[in-house]
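Data availability (excerpt). The following record was deposited with the supplementary files.
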Amino acid sequence: MSGPAASGTLTLGALDLAALLCSRVCHDLISPVGAIVNGLEVLEEDNDEETRTFALDLIKKSSRSASARLQFCRLAFGAAGSAGAQIDTGDAEKVSRGLIEDEKIKITWNLPRELRPKNQVKLLLNMMLVAAGAIPRGGTLAVDPVEGSPGFRIIAAGLNARVTPTTVELLAGAPGQTVDAHGVQPYYTGILARECELSVTAVAEGETIVVLAR
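Predicted structure:
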């Protein structure tokens, strides 16, 4: 599902892009929703108190996870208001912490709280996903503004931090790449950056990965 545009930038048709983004969201929700269903089945079938307590804990944890993912996806992928709408960066921080921050990953958020154009905030959230993906074993994410630009800088630091060449090329919209349900997220990040008249990159700097839009 891909092809080069006349400008040399990889492009997808609107229907393909929508389908792949929907697949990405569904993939993110399958695990917690499936766990909720499993927990409910245990409650219906097992009267052992210890097992029921475990099932309730599973349902609560999975419900929180599903809610966090939906809230994040609503801002990162959804319409989030009418054309030209603005979004509070405080909301972006809240959903980022809800989805990404846990015992493995800590976020340092240095952006001022302000209203930003919708696509800039969507870009920021998608950059957060790219940066978090660079530290699968955990670490830290530092989120900063870029002086003289409406863009953002996210520094991902963690054991064996890395970004794949495919992700780098998808961010740039390099022709020749195949966009699937896994690759659509960095590809979409690049689209958002170009809509904001910015360029987004992910590069290794020492033992960190810097995801930068400017």
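Summary of structural features: Residues 1-6 have pLDDT under 50 and may be disordered.
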